[in-house]
Amino acid sequence: MNVWIAIAATAVGCYAVKLAGLLVPAGALERPLVRRLAALLPVALLAALTAQQTFADGRALVLDARAAGVAAAAVALLLRAPFLLVVAAAVVVTAGVRAMGG
Amino acid sequence: MTERTALPEADTAEDKPDSAVVRDALGVGVAVGLSGFAFGVTSAGSGLTLAQTCALSLLVFTGASQFALVGALAAGGNPLTAAAGAFFLGVRNAFYGLRLSQLLALPRAVRPFAAQWVIDETTAVALAQPTRRAVRIGFTVTGLTLYLLWNATTLLGALGAEAIGDTDAWGLDAAGPAVFLALLAPMLTTATERAVAALAVLLGLGLLPVLPAGVPVLVAALAAPLVLWARGRRAEAAHQGGEGHEAPTGEERR
Q: Carries keyword Repressor (chain B) (predicted)?
């Protein structure tokens, strides 16, 4: 039930902001500070999420096979690999390290 | 290291044929649409049911928020805290909508239907088009392709994960962070973005052991205003120093 509540809240919230962008008169959100903040907010969230989902095990920080996988994804990104290949690199390397007992 | 900037693309772009717009749109739509598979697998691996996983792709339809939500729920987060993190990630779509509404010039009655497709990829394709007709074709074809494929591959991924069983053994728990990293990387264009990312990582990891699940991500979001504020102050100080003023008293903050 809790999961459905979270899904409903996310769906309503995300649809509302999408629609707001199309309905709000241009200029209402065009202040430079607001635009700057809106551009930086995803940077902060994505960075924190990447770090947490790589190093968190519950509320503890751990260094396991995922770190190797995400490092492989970083290398793939530096080599300008396409999106799916980046994700595949992370999955394959993580599975490989785990198979070797990492 | 190919040099392509010398091409006078602006001239040829004026009469870009519809087929070229459709090709651009399909390229993005198919490539990203297929990654719904990664979401389906991650979501099912995080313990969500098939119906919950598919509902997220159908109703939320903005990838980063979906990954964030299932990650937060899997970590044992409170449903509303988890939803708040996903919501803040979705706020950027409002700013895409602002740009798109000027370019698409949609009738008001159509906007509620177009809204669900206002995401990173449709915006990127639409903004790259030279004419209103091309913008509309680009937005519609990207949106439709992505919506259909993203939902189909979500279903397949969730079914596949259920068939596999232990998704962690296959390394599929690394798909989520890899997706986030892939979304983040192109945003790290200047020192400001990198400073925000670094501070957010510190806050997100440092607060993990002391705050309830899901909350550290929300606190990490404060990295954005904090870095902006610090840079603003530094610019102000440099400005005053350059003019030979005396040390700022600190009372003059705007």
A: no
